[in-house]
Every structure is written in structure tokens, then in C-alpha cells.
Amino acid sequence: MQPSIHEPSLDDIRDAAARIAPYAHVTPVLHSRSLDALAGCELYFKAEQLQRIGAFKFRGASNAVFGLSQEQAARGVVTQSSGNHGAAIALACRLRGIAAHVVVPRSAPRIKLAAIADFGARIVPCEVAQADRDRVTAQVLAETGGELVHPFNDARVIAGQGTATLELLQQVPALDAVIAPVSGGGLLSGTALAAKGLRPEIAVYGAEPEQAADAYESLRQGRRITDMTPNTICDGLRAHLGPLPFAILGRHCEAMLLASEAEIVAAMRLLWERLKQVVEPSAAVPLAAILRHAARFRGQRVGVILSGGNVDLDALPWTPGVGTPP
Amino acid sequence: MQPSIHEPSLDDIRDAAARIAPYAHVTPVLHSRSLDALAGCELYFKAEQLQRIGAFKFRGASNAVFGLSQEQAARGVVTQSSGNHGAAIALACRLRGIAAHVVVPRSAPRIKLAAIADFGARIVPCEVAQADRDRVTAQVLAETGGELVHPFNDARVIAGQGTATLELLQQVPALDAVIAPVSGGGLLSGTALAAKGLRPEIAVYGAEPEQAADAYESLRQGRRITDMTPNTICDGLRAHLGPLPFAILGRHCEAMLLASEAEIVAAMRLLWERLKQVVEPSAAVPLAAILRHAARFRGQRVGVILSGGNVDLDALPWTPGVGTPP
């Protein structure tokens, strides 16, 4: 997929917020005394599991879709995703009344396909290998003349994801730090650009599963690592860091903090028990990282992006027999 | 237990709101397009699972505890409860810095005892039979000279529970109906008094498990039925309607609506999947009743009290082998 590669500005993020305002929810910020006591700092959870489609992905997708010219829009939108981005593109295109073509590997769970199809998108199956995904995507682009909206390596998508942090800093202005999970890097890039743009003294952290630590390694080594095989329960965090996020995060991100699979599951359970929120494993990685690196956050006011809440209630990680990464 | 039996007024509820404001959370109202579509009406969920101790019970308990004179308070508070009311009394007493004595049957789950003990309350064990609970409670009252705060048959507690609906009608003024689960009737009584006081044209409904339908039968027969044996997954809804709630509900309640165990579990799952909220089975009974009696609510704006979110994540009702009522 050929991405849109210029780096978005704070104004781009403000424009995105205005563009998506008629469609996206302003999500609440949640707080828990008992989690604060446990972490030794003040945690402000930006509840993107309450965003439309149950994840922040709707912000970036709707910014891209509603930013298209009439002429572009008429040819439809193409993307590849078996997860929340696919559903987000499908819903945004339905709301704009244009065609969506989502390239999905045959291995994708039925339930995710159903979410995408329910919003009226055309599902184009492909094989699991990235080369085949790219081949089929190119085919659909050629055939339709549609607009590619990449899940993370796209300035419009990054600007859209940044609107969550724009809101968060309006809701809780005096944050010392903000932390978001990292996979392809779209959310964390938008988070960093919004946070640093509004409040240069803020520290921005990425949170990543130890067993999918390509962003950690990429920033450490100063080059993009794309040959690691992720082995994590976090189905939303298995992509490799994109080139545009890599460039943005290298400049704006304080550190990537890791957490083990067991720490992620424990943090997820804490969010269910104490915050009463259904969040997916990916959304629990920031809390897991904060608890592991508690000294770094002691006494601070920390914004935490809860990225989404789409989880299979029949296969929770603490159910006996579940919880081992695939 | 000898209850405080006068019926609270709207002013009592307003006083309660002012009294508990420094301690209780103003909980948000949640909304879901997909649940609205499913129900055929607009649902406004008052999120009491986000209240302190994870349930509405903190409102009534803190109103009673902070309403005591210095002299009364010095002798401590006595109650009997193995559930959320016990934890709520324990926390309210800790916040006021006074003693709490909670009479708890030996059968109570360890996790609930731990919640009560964590807030510093004295746990007084008793046998399961109601007669023994009452005997031990009377003993503790005699021994301490403490103040009895009954979980539901108490005007101070009812006024406190009513503050949830006071808030709800400030947050969403033009409701056609409001619905809350009923067990002993404290929450539903407070709901009815606040709703009818502020908005006489509103319809107030109780929601009750078919397999614990003593309130339904009591209102139908015009006399309090206290010899039914509840057989429901809703551990918060196994008490019999109290005399004071019985009197209040007979005047102010449109109807009691029933739901089966399977309908309750399905509604609970919907709240987890669509609203992303961890709610306990009791809190799902109103949605289950709305979906069963959909014609009655068609096109209306309906307030729904989500009563609490304290649930054992290792024994969810859709886990194989769980879900059969005890």
C-alpha cells in the first residue's frame, strides 16, 4: 500500500477534530481512586472503548473518509485490515454514503468479518502472507480507482487519532505524561503530535508487549525492525511500526515501555474490576507498563489512552485454557 | 432490625444529594445507538457501576451515615448485609471516622467479606437463617448502642438512593420513563420518589427476575409476599420487598416487569458488548425487561438505572458450567 506520508501538524489535528465532530463521540475520561493508589500516580483514562465501533480507530478513518474531495469519494475507499480499522472505514464510508473495499485475510475471525460486513463494506478475501495482502489491495485499487486509507502510515489517519489526545488535554489540562499502546504507530504518533503541540513539557510514552517489541527495538537501534514475529495476546498490536510513525516517534517519544503477557492480562483484569470497563488486551498495555515502571510515574498526572473494547467474551484471557498467545 | 419508617420527600432527596456530594461520584449517563436500535426506544443508562464501591448502595449508606448527629455517630453504625450495602456502610463509616459493625452470614463469599473488611469494618458472623441474622444484629445493637442502618427499609437510605435519579433527570430532563431493578425496594422507591417528584408525568417501572418475583406478586395481590424462595443468578435481588418500599411502590410505580434468567444473562452480555460496561446480573434486569416488553417502551426516552458492577470475573454466567442459578 502506498501511504500518505507527510507529517501532520497540530492544525491538521484541530482540523480533524472539527471534521469528525458530527460523527465521532467525545469520549469521557475515567478515574479510579484504587488504581491511583496501586500505581502511585494519578491516572486519567481516555475511554476510547466508548468510541464508535468500540475503538479509537473511528477517529482516523472518519477523518480520512470525510476529508476526501467529492471526486475522490465517488471512487470509494480501499484498505486492508482484519480488525478495528476495517470496521471503522466501513462505518465512515457508510456515513458518507460511498463504497468501502476492505481486503481481509482468510484467517480473520468470523466475528470481525461480520462487523465489517454489517456496515455495508465489500470484503475482499486474500491469503495471510503480507505479499498477498498487498497484491490483492493493489488489484482492488487498480480496478476501482479508489482511495487507499492505510491503517497507520497515513497522515490523515494519524491526525484523526490525535484528536483523542486533543480532547483529553481539554478535559484534563495539566498532565505530566501521556501513554498509548503502539503497533503500527498511528495512535501513538497522533498522541505525541497533539500532546507535544499543546504542551511541549509533557512526556509521551509508548507501551508495547515484550513479545511484540519491534517499536522498542526500532527506536533503540535507530532503524525500523520489520522481521520480528509478534507472539502476543494483544491482537491489535501485531503490526510493525510504519515509516511515518517511526520518524514521528523518534522525535517526540520519551521512551517505549514494555510489559509481559502476564502483566498485560493482570492490568486488563484490573481495568475490568476497578474501572468496570470492558477493554481489549491491547488497551491494557499502558497500565501494565505504568505498573511495571512505577518509579518513573510516581506522583505524576498521567493520561492513559484506553484504545478499545472489542473482545471475545467467550475467550477471556483468564478463562482456563485461554490466554496463551497464538 | 427496626427500620426508620417515614416516607422521604423530594426535599429529603435533595438534602441527601447535598449531604453526599463531597463523597459520592456524579456518575455519567451512557448511550448506545445499537442498543437503541435493538430496543426500539432511546435508552439512557445511569452508570452506578461507576459509583464508589461499584454500586448505587454508597448513596443511601453515606446519606444515613453522614446524617447522624455527633452523638449517634460516636456509638457507630450497625447493619446486616453480605453484599454491596455492607461495603457501602463500611466505606461511609471509614470516611466519617466512626465504627461500623456488619453482620454477615457465614455463607458469604470470601471476596465480599474482604471488601467489607478492607474498609475497616468489624465483621460479625451469623448463621444463614434470617432469624439468626436478626438475633445477632439485635445483640450487636444492644452491646454497642449503635445506629441501625437497614439496607432498604429506611427512609434515609431510600432518600440517598433517590439521588441517582435526581442526577439522571438533571442530565437527561425529558424522560418518558425510568426503570430500576427491585429487591428489597430501596433503590426503586428512591427512584420513584425522585422521578415523580420532579416529573409527575413520568412512568416508573420496577424490573425483577421471574424467579424472584415477590415484589411483582406483592403489588399484584396488594399484600407483602415474604414466603417465596428466590432462585436467580442475580445475587443482589434475593431480598423480599420491605414494608416501607411496599407502601411507596404501591402508590408510585406503574408496573413490575419480569425477565427470565436467560433474558437477564443475554441483556448482561449486551451491556458488556455494546456499552463496554462490566455490570453485575442484577443491573441487567431492567434492559432484559425492556427488551421483553418492547411494545410498552416503543419510541420513548427511557432512563435505566445500572445498579452495580461487582461480579466475579472467574464465574461469568456465559462460562460453560456457570450460569445455573444456585
Q: How would you summarize what this structure contains?
A:
By secondary structure, chain A is α/β, with parallel strands linked by helices.
Describe what you observe in this structure.
The structure is a homodimer of 326-residue chains. By secondary structure, chain A is an alpha/beta fold. Chain A has helices spanning 10-20, 33-39, 57-66, 70-74, 84-96, 110-118, 130-144, 155-171, 186-198, 214-221, 243-252, 261-274, 281-292, 294-297; strands spanning 29-30, 42-47, 77-80, 100-105, 122-126, 147-148, 177-181, 203-209, 255-259, 301-306. In chain A, helix 1 (10-20) crosses helix 8. The model of chain A has no long low-confidence stretch (mean pLDDT 94). Chain A binds chain B through residues 28, 30, 33, 49-50, 52, 54, 269, 272-273, 276-279, 309, 313-314, 316, 318-319, and chain B through 28, 30, 33, 49-50, 52, 54, 269, 272-273, 276-279, 309, 313-314, 316, 318-319.
Question: What's the end-to-end separation of chain A, in Å?
Answer: 26 Å
Beta-strand percentage range of chain A: 5-15%
Reading off the top of the CATH hierarchy, the class of the largest domain in chain A is best stated as Alpha Beta
What would the principal axes of the Cα set say about the shape of chain A? globular
Question: Which spans of chain A have pLDDT < 50 for at least 5 consecutive residues?
Answer: none
Count of beta strands of chain A: 10
Query: What is the gyration radius of chain A calculated from CA atoms?
Result: 18 Å
Estimate the helix proportion of chain A, in percent: 40-55%
CATH architecture name of the largest domain in chain A: 3-Layer(aba) Sandwich
| Element order of chain A: H for helix, E for strand | HEHEHHEHEHEHEHEHEHHEHHHE
Q: Largest interface: which pair?
A: A-B, 20 and 20 residues
Strand order, sheet with most strands of chain A = 1-2-10-7-8-9
Structural class of chain A: alpha/beta
CATH topology of the largest domain in chain A: Rossmann fold
Number of domains of chain A: 2
Distinct helical segment count of chain A: 14
Mean pLDDT of chain A, nearest integer? 94
The biggest beta sheet of chain A, please? 6 strands, mixed
Oligomeric nature of the chains: homodimer
